[in-house]
Amino acid sequence: MSYADNFKKMKPGLDFGQAVAEADRCLLCHEPPCSTACPANTQPGTFIRKLRMKNITGAIRTIKENNILGGACGVLCPTARLCEKECSATGIGRPIEIGKIQRFLVEQSWERNLNLFDTPNPRNEKIAVVGSGPGGLSCAAELAKKGFPVTVFEARPEPGGVLRYGVVSYRFDLDFLEKELGDVKSLGVEFKCNTRIEGDRGAEKLLENGYSAVFLAPGLWGAMRLAPEKEPSEGLFTSVEYLAALRDGRLEEIASQVEGKTVAVIGGGSVAMDCIESAAKLGAEDVYLVYRRSWMQMPAEEDERIESLEAGVHYLLLNQPTGYRTDEKNRLTGLKMVRTRLGESDDSGRRRPEVIPESEWTLDAVMVIEAIGNRAESDSSRWYPNVDVDDKLLIKADPETGTTSTPGIFAGGDIVRGPALVVNAVQDGKLAAKAIQEYLKE
Ligand SMILES: Cc1cc2nc3c(=O)[nH]c(=O)nc-3n(C[C@H](O)[C@H](O)[C@H](O)COP(=O)(O)OP(=O)(O)OC[C@H]3O[C@@H](n4cnc5c(N)ncnc54)[C@H](O)[C@@H]3O)c2cc1C
Ligand code: SF4
Asked: Of 20, 28, 29, which is best to mutate to test ligand 2, by the most ligand atoms within 8 angstroms of its C-beta?
């Protein structure tokens, strides 16, 4: 088995017996706190009750009618800090594994080939959606369910956004993604891939060219950079480039660069976790996580961090990268750093890392991945110049409706919130779909 085989499939979910046994632990709360904790308004209290009654179709409907990406959320949501955090069963033992039950039910809908949605009365007003990540897919599905002809414009060769070109495949595999995309396509949503909306007023031209409303969900595909004095020509990746390469056919190529070598990843968030874990799975000899603050201040989920330690990743905390060492051909040979200590709290409420004088050192490494944050692509606001953005190029939109400063243009997902979650983008898409219908009535 090659290292690349580790990436093909995600771990299997619950089988029928396991899902029913887990549902049997549910206390069937009268006013389920789990149901108020979901940012996309999913009702675990209801679908678990239906599963208990062996009403599988009803349980699936409860999930999918509310969230067309119910499967993705079941797999990827950090449930420990959402619905499961509120679960009443926690007081007795451990919380009900709501995410796993949700995934099981969505997989059942595919196994049973259920037709979940009625054919709506067709509407004439065409809607354009820019971006096929969770936000765009959710908005497109909601509007298609109401009979609107929806076209999703996607810059990349295939739809899915971060679900396809970001999250590593052993956490969310292609087969699962294609099935969930199939649910969106079955509603009649049209996809135009390899079609980047760009140029002068690109988004507004959609309105001039026959679309009655536009939903912008292009996400954050620019990478924050360390901005070293000298960039190597080989061995340096941003997390955006590296993770996309693992999923766009270059997995073997990356594996050959990593196997048996030392890899350093800069960053302390969940994206950095995907980078270190995948590098370890690709057979790197040593993987270092470099973070300028301490363990307690890392934004990544604690269970992810513990898993990475179990996978043998070395943590270089309180170290701040300053640049790269290269050989005579400008190939990366090391990561230069200074040590830090924690000082007073900064605006984020976390203690600020302070550089320790004369503590410079260099870690030998042939590959470094910068995972220090995603941001809007630098040219993004050029194709919607009349839509107000903030100083980080995030679109200013009403959080309840996605309404922007330009009539007919709505926005949601990461391009509005900054880096967030799949479930947040799903909710933005739903809210905008509702607001678009109101706008068209007016
Ligand atoms: C590596 C990684 C791992 C993550 N893991 C998790 C996780 O485990 N759980 C979780 O809940 N969240 C996770 N997230 C966050 C989550 O994926 C995002 O919050 C979510 O995908 C945002 O959805 P979106 O629709 O706003 O944008 P995206 O998913 O970014 O999709 C935007 C789409 O728009 C396209 N596009 C951009 N510009 C244009 C243009 N001009 N014309 C046409 N198309 C365009 C892009 O190609 C892309 O396909 C992760 C994020 C990353 C980066
Ligand atoms: S809070 Fe927990 S125990 Fe109560 S209904 Fe939800 S899953 Fe069941």
From this structure: 29
**Ligand 1 near 13 CB (within 6 A):** no
Q: Distances in Å between the alpha carbon of 369 and those of 26, 223, 339, 410? A: 43, 11, 19, 34
In the reported structure, the alpha carbon of residue 33 is separated from the centroid of ligand 2 by a whole-number distance in angstroms of 7
Closest residue by CA, ligand 1 atom 19: 421
- Decide if 2 is inside a domain: no
Distance CA 65, CA 49 (A): 17
Same domain, 253 and 364: yes
* Full strand arrangement of the beta sheet holding 286-291: 236-238, 367-370, 262-266, 286-291, 314-317
Identify which ligand lies nearest to the alpha carbon of 195. Answer: 1
Closest-lying ligand to the alpha carbon of 171? 1
CA distance 194 to 267: 31
- Do 406 and 364 share a structural domain? no
Q: Is the CB of 25 inside a 6 Å radius of any atom of ligand 2? A: no
Cα(128)–Cα(121) distance, rounded to whole angstroms? 19
Does the CB atom of residue 402 touch ligand 1 within 6 A? no
Residue 34 domain boundaries:
8-111
Residue by residue, pLDDT tens for the chain (442 residues) are 677 777 878 999 999 999 999 999 999 999 999 999 999 999 999 999 999 999 999 999 999 999 999 999 999 999 999 999 999 999 888 999 999 999 999 999 999 988 889 889 999 999 999 999 999 999 999 999 999 999 999 999 999 999 999 999 999 999 999 999 999 999 999 999 999 999 889 999 999 999 999 999 999 999 999 876 678 989 999 999 999 999 988 999 999 999 999 999 999 999 999 999 999 999 999 999 999 999 999 999 888 999 999 989 999 999 999 999 999 999 999 999 999 999 998 887 888 999 999 999 999 999 999 999 999 998 888 899 999 999 999 999 999 999 999 999 999 999 999 999 999 999 999 999 999 999 999 8
Q: What are phi and psi of 344, to 5 degrees?
A: -70, 165
Which of ligand 1's atoms lies nearest the C-alpha of 161? 49
Pocket test for ligand 2, best of 42, 88, 90, 100 (most atoms within 8 A of CB): 88
